[in-house]
């Protein structure tokens, strides 16, 4: 549970930094249009802080970390989420700075973002099955 809470705190710090960066970076560049940077903060809060706070509570109640598949979920999720945040950051910076990306780099950025989204989807699906299995195990105990 300790590593889960530490991770939640780490994602909270990253979310706060990304919110300040978005506000200041767009202000310095006099950018007023919507940008991907605007949703980076909320993605980190929900997918980072929210998910790991929920996991800390679930671990306290039903010990989901004892599940053999939990480490697979944990690794995949914590590789995919930062990768997705990095692609969002890069995309947002290029939008604000009006940097014209080459077709190859634009495709690569979109491809990496897509792969990170797929990784998150697989990890969250795995988490749902882990939670279901552990809830059923607790139900059988009672």
Automatic annotation (TrEMBL):
Signal peptide: none annotated. The chain crosses the membrane at residues 7-25, 37-58, 70-90, 110-131. Keywords: Membrane, Transmembrane, Transmembrane helix. InterPro entries: Cyt_c_oxase-like_su1_sf (IPR036927), DUF2871 (IPR021299). It comes from the Bacteria. It holds the Pfam family DUF2871. This is DUF2871 domain-containing protein.
